[in-house]
Amino acid sequence: MNTLEKVGTGGDTKPGFTFQLLACRPESRGRVRLRDRNPLSKPLLEGLYLSAPDAADLTTLREGIKLSRKVCQAEAFEGVRGEEIYPGLAVRSDEDIEQYIRSTIHSANALTSSCRMGGDDDPLAVLDPQLRVRGVASLRVVDASAMPQIIGGQTAAPTIMLAEKAADLIIQQRARHRATTDSHMFAPEAPRAAV
């Protein structure tokens, strides 16, 4: 977050543009854990950024910086291209770029998949395909955490779609429950035996 903090401090600003680099499908996986036995305690959130085997995410981001520098040199940017501010002209080698990434990495505020849905054959699925928490009655999770995998874009529209689907599922479930309840309430009585 160093870059964001520096940019946000005010001071002298200049016109410019930014390339936003991100790993759309990172291989690193964070985790959410219980802090203690108290259900009111905040959970422990561990991003574990750049923890993928073979430094896959670090490589993606490093190459993204190199590519953005090449794109910036295109003729279309003549007249608007100024001095590179971040990571800065002094950051050239792969090692320097990687150090810059390590010191500035942060989430893009689109955290997903911590409570994924999936079929019975998915041992990591906390939710069933109807977004119900396995082993807990009357509880559904309806947000981006239910996504089975990280999507390759913004999460707002897919999250709205999940909410719409969940609403449909709940309405259908209630209709089935009412139909069952109503059929028992109005079922014809069995004939009585003659006395």
Low-confidence stretches: none
Q: How many helices does DSSP assign?
A: 4
From the spread of the alpha carbons, the general shape counts as elongated
Terminal Cα separation, in Å?
86 Å
Q: What's the β-strand tally? A: 2
CATH class label of the largest domain: Alpha Beta
Specify the helix fraction band.
25-40%
CATH superfamily of the largest domain: Glucose Oxidase, domain 3
Approximately how much beta-strand content do the residues carry? under 5%
Strand order of the largest sheet: 1-2
Give me the secondary-structure category: mainly alpha
Please state the CA-atom Rg, rounded to the nearest Å: 26 Å
Largest β-sheet summary: 2 strands, antiparallel
Question: If classified by CATH, what would the architecture of the largest domain be?
Answer: 2-Layer Sandwich
Average pLDDT, to the nearest integer? 86
Number of structural domains: 2
